[in-house]
Specification:
Distance between the termini: 40 Å
Largest sheet: 8 strands, parallel, barrel
Helix content: 40-55%
CATH class: Alpha Beta
Structural class: alpha/beta
Strand order of the largest sheet: 1-2-3-4-5-8-9-12
Shape: globular
CATH architecture: Alpha-Beta Barrel
CATH topology: TIM Barrel
Strand content: 15-25%
CATH superfamily: Divalent-metal-dependent TIM barrel enzymes
Number of domains: 1
Number of strands: 12
Order of helices and strands: HEHHEHEHHEHEEEHEHHEEEHEH
Length: 281
């Protein structure tokens, strides 16, 4: 009997550990609210309802669309939505990161993301990269001490050659107190390899911006591009399926759909279905 009970206990322990692992590594689909920037000007409440109808429960944003903080929180609650990430500009993270931290906490968000490093158009260089790393490490330490995570969102211009690699290689190797949110579209536009980066740095990308690119689109090195080249996930020239599978292996926490095209309302639910299809394989 003792031997039998021991086997049962071992089985339960393995089962509980396996279940915990699945919970920790589960990928959640989220939406960057910028995808609906034009629609929110028409009807904020209706489009938050639509996000819920798409089966999305997590969002990235940071504003309240002119509503009071409490009214906006109530809107999110009514629609079963949770703010998991907010934006903090470069200037905010340099000059007053504590204010951004308080804003994130007010939303209940776990992540703060900076989406752009100010620089002369088309001329992002080593001095810009060094300055950004210095600002991000300092802000990231404060964010980390507050129990949150700070991420930088590369926009493509960081993939210019530097030494034996790129400026981005320097940035990620120098990132002591911050992580990265990879926008796979912009990495591809800048000449980077999104899947290769996920494989090379499995612990540095807790967040992904899921965005596919129309086949035949030319790359850029200045962080600009035609938003109409954003297509339904899995229909463009980026290996979205491979990226989702690698993200699953890496334990990426949130797969955040961002569709900047004029077709976002029709394309987002198709992209949700595609992600779920690959995750279930």
């Amino acid at each position: 009997m003792a031997c039998y009970l021991s086997k049962i206990s071992s089985f339960l322990l393995v089962y509980l550990i396996s279940g915990l692992s699945l919970m920790v590594n589960a990928q959640e689909i989220a939406l960057q609210l910028y995808s609906l920037r034009n629609q929110m000007k028409i009807d904020v409440e209706r489009y938050h309802e639509i996000i819920n109808q798409w089966g999305i429960r997590y969002i990235e944003g940071g504003g309240t669309y002119g509503m009071s903080d409490q009214d906006y929180q109530d809107l999110l609650h009514r629609n079963g939505l949770k703010m998991v990430s907010i934006g903090g500009s470069f200037e905010e993270m340099r000059d007053n990161p504590k204010a951004v931290i308080e804003r994130a906490k007010a939303f209940g968000a776990k992540y703060i993301v900076t989406f752009w490093v100010p620089h002369a158009s088309g001329k992002f260089g080593m001095d810009d990269a060094k300055n950004a790393v210095e600002v991000f490490n300092a802000a990231g330490k404060l964010v980390k001490d507050a129990g949150l995570t700070f991420c930088y969102h590369p926009h493509g211009y960081e993939f210019k050659p530097h030494g034996d690699g790129t400026l981005f290689d320097y940035m990620i190797q120098s990132a002591r107190d911050f992580d990265f949110q990879m926008d796979i579209f912009w990495v591809k536009m800048g000449g980077g390899d999104p899947l290769g980066l996920l494989r090379k740095h499995p612990a540095k990308f807790p967040l992904l911006h899921m965005k596919d690119r129309k086949s035949g689109t030319a790359g850029t090195t200045d962080g600009t591009g035609d938003v109409e080249t954003n297509v339904v996930l899995g229909t463009g020239d980026i290996d979205i399926a491979g990226i989702i599978r690698q993200a699953k292996m890496n334990g990426v926490e949130y797969l955040i759909i961002e569709d900047e095209s004029s077709r976002s309302v029709s394309q987002i639910p198709q992209s949700v279905r595609y992600i779920n299809q690959i995750l279930k394989e």
